[in-house]
Each structure stands twice: as structure tokens, then as C-alpha cells.
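Database export, one record per block. Field names are fixed; values are copied verbatim from the stored entry.
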Amino acid sequence: MRLAPARAVVESARVGWTKPFQMIGRTGETLLDRVLCVAGAVVFSQAPEFMQQYFQRLGGHLDEATRQLRQFEHVAEQAGESVSAFATRAQASADTVMARMGDIVAGAITRVDDLSAAVAALRNATPWSRPFVFLEHVDVEIARATWGAFKPAVPTTFEGALYAAAGMIVFLALYHGAIRAPIAAATRRARARRADGELPRVRPA
């Protein structure tokens, strides 16, 4: 049974009337690619600005926590001990109020250490490592407050341009890899099945 000529006829007829739609589809794909490039650039280019505003808030929280710790250190110095020793002794006290004070002092020490580490890590991070450093050291409450007051800005730095380019690549890769490619594969399979169903069955002589 030879079906190749019949398949060619079916495919030729289909290509003829679907050609205008294919041209429209290609035009739409080009336009969509451009839209995705712009969207990716806009979204990703705001990341450096958000992290900068977050960093400023982080520094403010560190200043406030350090000021509070300095007060505890002054009290500890008057008692002739370090602030860490003062916190430990207070936490072990049978007096509930004193023990609570020890917890507060210990929390202040930990808070300053955590914020200092986060500030140093973000300050020393490279443009490419900064998002990962940010996620590693992020303070959820500070990030939420930053987002609530976030003001988008036009990127004017080399870092902003890098993030914009990365956004274009990511958005296009996600679309073509996770959406367009599976749809195209499914369409090809559907066309192949439909073509098989349309082929005339020729009996051998």
C-alpha cells in the first residue's frame, strides 16, 4: 500500500489555505517576543532599586539596634561585666523580671549580629551574587516594609542594565521553553494524527 503521494496531496492542500494564518502567527510571535523582552527588562531592572531601598532600611534598623545595645552595654559596664555576661546572669535569675530583661539583652545582641552580617554581606556582594545574598539574609519584616513603600525608578547603572538583559533572557526562555515548545509539539502530533485520518485507503490491485 503506497500512501506517500496521497499524504503529499493532503499536506499541500492544507499548507495552501493555512499560509495566511501562519504568517499572522509568525507576526504575533515576533510581537509577543518583543513584549516579553520589555516586560522582563522592566521587572528585573527594578530588582537593584528594591534591594538598594531594602539595604537603606536594613542599615536604619542596624543603627537603632546598635543604639539599644549600647545602652545595655553601659549598664553592664557599671556592673563590671560584659553585656554577654550580664545577659547570661540575668537570664539565670530567679526574679522573673530580671530573667525577662536578660532575654531582651540577649535578643539585642543577636539582632545586632544578624543585621551586621546582612549589611556586610550585601555590601560586599557582586551584582550577580547580590540576589542570592539578599535571599539568604533577608529579613521578612523589613522586606515587607520596603515593598510597601517601594518607588520604582528608571535604572541608570550598569547593574540595572545587566538585570534588564537577564530579565529579557529569562522571560523569553520561560515562554519558549515552558509554553511555546510544548504547544508546538502537541500541535505537530495533532496534525500528524489528523493527516493519518484524512488519507484515503488505497487497495492494492
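Remark 1: The longest helix spans residues 4-78.
Remark 2: The mean pLDDT is 80.
End of record.
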